[in-house]
Amino acid sequence: MRREEPISEAATETFERHRSLLFSIAYRMLGSVMEAEDVVQEAFVRWREASEGEVRSPKSYLSTVVTRLSIDRLRSAKARREEYVGPWLPEPIATREDSDVAGAVVLDETLSMAFLVLLESLTPVERAVFLLREVFDYDYAEIASLVGKSEDNCRQISRRARQSVAARRPRFESSPEQEERLMGSFLEACMSGDMESLLALLSEDATLWSDGGGKTRAALNPIHGADRVARYFSGILRKAPPGFVVRPASINGRPGFIGYFEDGRPQSVTTFDVAEGSIRGIRLVVNPEKLRNVPQMS
Length: 298
Prior knowledge:
Number of strands: 6
CATH topology of the domain at 176-290: Nuclear Transport Factor 2, Chain: A
Structural class: alpha+beta
Helix content: 40-55%
Order of helices and strands: HHHHHHHHHEEHEEEE
Number of helices: 10
CATH architecture of the domain at 176-290: Roll
Low-confidence stretches: none
Strand content: 5-15%
CATH class of the domain at 176-290: Alpha Beta
Distance between the termini: 47 Å
């Protein structure tokens, strides 16, 4: 039976102190703001119903609830993503200081769209162990309790996950300042139709992923090669609706763009992978369901 008495103010304050951590775990696990918020809300419900005697450590209890709920959701999401129309990309977060979501998430390199996509190669349990150890600095005894495995097993899972991530991770990383310069030049070249300058900014093996989820027009398969990527992206901007505006933005802690309709609604979010001084990947999210938490143009 559900406990009917209201939760105390102290218990609510305790939960709120951990909210940023809980959302950060859930979002990195699920790649979805809406699902992460649902998981955090469910954790609050369970926190409200828990007896004081069964909670020795609020952080450990709440982390366990969020981790296990996220693992369960990720397992069920796997089937849905296999049926997804076109490439699946994480739901982007606008991480400027005045964004509502930005204040609820721990910002670091592992929040980037590229890193979240990289985590898709892991199983749900591998993903949880990797994040808890490498990002949130839990020790193996805590992780074992959170995921319901032995410490030795968690060490093995962590090692496999690290090796998998390292094998897929780009060898060369760029600074935000370099990314901003490249993206500014990229946007200028696209808007002016300067294909020569555009091609000079892209690596030969550049790839573009476009996530429309079947809700709007988007490429159904990744687009490979600098020439094809340049022509596709410049074509999008040439065919943009009247009053369409592009603004630089911080997306998942990295430089990117937000495209806006004339009425200020977000139409798209674009992020970039940069390595060795050129753009190697472009991720374009146009699925309107994934843009609900992107702020309108002010």
